[in-house]
Each structure stands twice: as C-alpha cells, then as structure tokens.
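Section handout 9: paired folding examples.
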Amino acid sequence: MSSIEILKDIARRPLEEVHALRPALTSELLNAHPHHHNSIAWLLWHSAREIDEQLASLSGQEPVWTVQGFAERFALDLGAHDMGFGHTGTHARRVRVSDPDLLLEHLRAVVEAQLSYLDSLGEADLEEVIDTQWHPPVTRGARLISLSLDAVAHIAQAAYVTGMGPAAFEEPQVAEQHGEEHQGGQRQA
C-alpha cells in the first residue's frame, strides 16, 4: 500500500465514524451541552471545518464551506473562515444545527475534496516542508495526517457524548427525550 493510499484510508475514517453515529443523532441531542460548551453539533461542524480550511490552504482552492454553499445553508453567526479554533464558550454555543444530515453532507463533501486532493499528489509531494514554524518542520504528509486525526478525535468525543445518559446534559429536552426529568443545573464557567 502506498503512502497516498494510507492517507486516503485515514481521510475516510471521520466520515465512517459519523455514519455510525447518525442513527442516534436528533436535533435535541446535537445541540445539547454535556456541562461543556462543545455540543455534538459543534464537534461535528468543527471536524469538517478544520479539515476544509487546512485542505484549502494546502491545495490553494476555496473551502468547500463557501464554494458549495454550506456557509449559507448552516447560517451560523461566524466568520467565513471560522473553523472553531480558539472559540470561547459563547462562540461554540452559537453553533446550533437542527439537521444531522446537513452535518453529514458537509463532512462527506469535505472528505471527497480531501480524497480528490490526495489523488493529485505523488509520493514526493508528501515530503515537501509546508510549515517551518514547528520543530521539526511540518511536511505536507504530516499535515494531512494531523488534520484527519484531529477530526477523528473530535468525532470520538461526539460519540462519547452521544452515549451519555440524560442527567449529563444541561438542557431538559434531552432528559425528556429519554423519558426522565432533568435534575441538573448549568455549570458556571
């Protein structure tokens, strides 16, 4: 298996993981907060956005977010290139998405763009140093690995939150969805 084929396999993993989560994702659960600012909606949105923005930087192309109209469809009160890095709790809580399929569609489009980009590369392209601000300097291959692994990590967090019981959430509608009364309060920042 070539390095490119390995990177393509890694690139597919975030989408595979979200497909596995999809049956459990309701609007209420997506936007519930497990006594933390990052909801499942934020985690899934961020996973796709960080791949998208970093891929756009690598490829010199516009992000899928703007080119394919996802910015308008999501209608979030965030900047065009915002991907969630450095979000305060207030910013993270602005990411509210009622349609789990929209999150999945966005991630699918981003992964397809990543696979297309990988198809345009040769083995030598992976060794090119693209960022000298780190020690050791970051190669194109290392960046491609890190953006996929970051997405997988956030999706794993979303999977963990999906399995939490109703008492884990601030919002009473999640408890009601599970047929129980919510007893918790909001955590102070």
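Moving on to protein 2 of 2.
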Amino acid sequence: MAGSSNGSSPDPRPAIWLCHQTDGIEAPPPAWLTGYEQDTVRKFSGPREREYVTSRWLIRQAIGKSANLPPHQCRPVAGRPTASGRPDGWQLSLSHSHGLSACATRASSPIGLDLEPCQRHPQWQKVARRWFTAVEQEWLFREDDPNAFLKVWTLKEAWLKATGRGIAGNLQTLEVRKNFEIYGDQPGEDWQASCCYIEGYLVTLVFRGSRPQWPDITLLEPPPGDFSLVDAVSMEASWEPLFQRTIRPKY
C-alpha cells in the first residue's frame, strides 16, 4: 500500500494523498473535528468552510493509510498540521487549491508540499520581480515561460514548509537556477525535491533525504456529504513526473 512505511528505513519513502472537493448540501461541521479545528472552522463559511473540512478529512485518511489504522483513530497535532498527533511519528504537509486537497506524509522526517493549478500564473513577472533573486529573474524573464515560474514558486513554497518557515522574508532562502539547479540555506543536511503534474495541477514535494525518490501518489475518492470518516477507496489517477533534484547547500 502507498505510504505504508513504518519508519524503520533510514530514508523512508514519502507519500502524497489527494482528493477532490465536492459540492453538496451544507452540513454542520462533523463532530470528529478537534476543539482547535472546531474553533477554526467557525471563522469560515460556504466553499471555504467546505475546503477546510475536506482538508482535515484528508489528513486523517492520509495518517490512517500511512500507519495502517482506521481514519477515526487518527488526528494531527493542534495548530498547523505539520505532524500526526495520534498516532505520533508522522510528519505532514498540507496544500489545497481550487478544489483539490493534498496531504504529504513521511515517517519522522521533515516534508513540504505545494500544489498549484497549471493555469494559475497571472502577472507572474510582477511576483518574480518582488520576491525572487536576481539570478532567478534573469533566466525566468529570458525564457518567458509562466510554467517555469510556477515550478520555481512551488519549489520555494514546499521548501519553506519543509524547513518550518513562512513566506515573509524567506522566499530567497532557496534559489532555483537555470535547468532547475537548486540551492538552499541549510548546509550540512541533504534535501531532495520532486516535481510532477497530477490531475491538472503542478505538485512539488521537498523532503530531507540522502537520495532522490518519487513519492507514492494516491488519489482517494471525495469525502461523503456528511464527511464521515469511512475508510476512503483509492481511485485511478494520472500523473507525469517532471524532475527530481538534490538541493545543494547555498553557502
């Protein structure tokens, strides 16, 4: 089963679990949400509320399938869901956009995930001028390829999640050069990046490890209308590998 590593390997294989969000009759937030999640979901309404609950449903599915437990026995830590709270021992990274949610899992090792719709890149030159390094701007503007920009952006987002930092003041801690040579500010540690297309989205994963690995990728059926924690069935999904890179020390 995808993501079934028990953490005994020194370089456990990462996994990505995905599900589409479905429209339906508005229902009260499910009782299985933690107190922190109940407080958070009250801040949302409509599609944003449904997106939040879908992502929390997926987190429990991802932990359960990784740890070989039913989803109702699983939950993330309180606050930002960067690790499993029950059972412990799994690192998590969550991303969702435009109707697709994804959760990456890995045993006992930092991981970062970002996804973006393949067509989502308006005014990318403005973003690059504001946030990217001079080296990145030079080759991106010369190539004039919005998809190249999107790959760089998701690499940076996944890197910051894996290293536990926010966007503000940190986007240049990872520099992506031509041909996607990647340099980060974490000397003395091995980091890997994998990038692929899945279900019309660009999905990028960053994780600490001594060797490149493609993640196990599983698309799950969407949650039921009441978001009950039934064990979700996997569905067929198409994905296209793009590139793998070792992130080299920047200094």
